[in-house]
Amino acid sequence: MVSNNEDLLGSLTLAFSMEKGSNEFYKKAEEKIIDKKGKEMFKKLASFEEGHMRYIQYLYTSLLGEKKLITLAEFKEKVPTDVMEGGIKIDPSLERVEDTPFMDDIDVLNIAGDKEAKSYTFYQKLIRKNSDTNAKVVFEELAKEEKKHIKYIKELIDKIN
To answer: 123: Cβ–Cβ under 8 A, 6 or more apart, which residues?
Structure first.
C-alpha cells in the first residue's frame, strides 16, 4: 500500500505534464516539418509519449481507487503544461523547428535525441531528490523508457548514416 499518496500523486501529475508537453511538441513539430521522413519520426515519437501518458494516468487512477475515476482525456484537460520532458519550454523548441522548415531526418533525430537525453537526466534528478520510494519507482520506469528512446534514435541515425 502507498504510504504517502500526496507525494506520489504530485509526482505523477508532474510526470504526466511533461509527457503531455512532449507529446504536444512532437505533434506540432510533425505539422510544421516538410520532410516526409521527419513527419513520420515525429508521429512515432508522439505515440511513445502518448503511451507514457496512458501509463501515468493508469497509475494515478489506480492510486485514487474508486474515489475518483478519471479518463485520459479528462486528465489531459486537467493537467495544463507549457513544458515537455526535461523541463524544456515547448514554444522555444518549436521555434527551432519553424526556423528550419526544410529540416531533414537527421535534424529531426538530433532534436528528438537532445530532448530525450534531457528527459532522462531530468528523471534521474527526480529519482535522487524524491524521498517517496513509490515516486522513485515511477521515475525510474520513465527514465528507462527515455533510455529506450535514446537508443531507438541512435539506431535510426546509424541506419541513415
So the answer is: 85, 139, 140, 142, 143, 146
Q: 87: phi > 0 → left, psi -120 to 50 → alpha, else beta; which?
A: left
**All three cell numbers of 69:** 475515476
Q: Each residue of 96-136: pLDDT tens digit?
A: 666 655 566 777 778 788 888 888 988 898 888 888 788 78
132 close to 8: Cβ distance less than 8 angstroms: yes
Helix pair 105-129, 5-32: axis angle to 10 deg: 170
Per-residue model confidence as pLDDT tens digits over 75-104? 788 887 776 666 666 666 666 666 655 566
* Residue of 106, 43, 114 whose CA lies nearest to 85: 114
Terminal C-alpha separation, the chain: 49
pTM exceeds 0.85, yes or no: no
Q: Note the pLDDT of residue 1.
A: 28
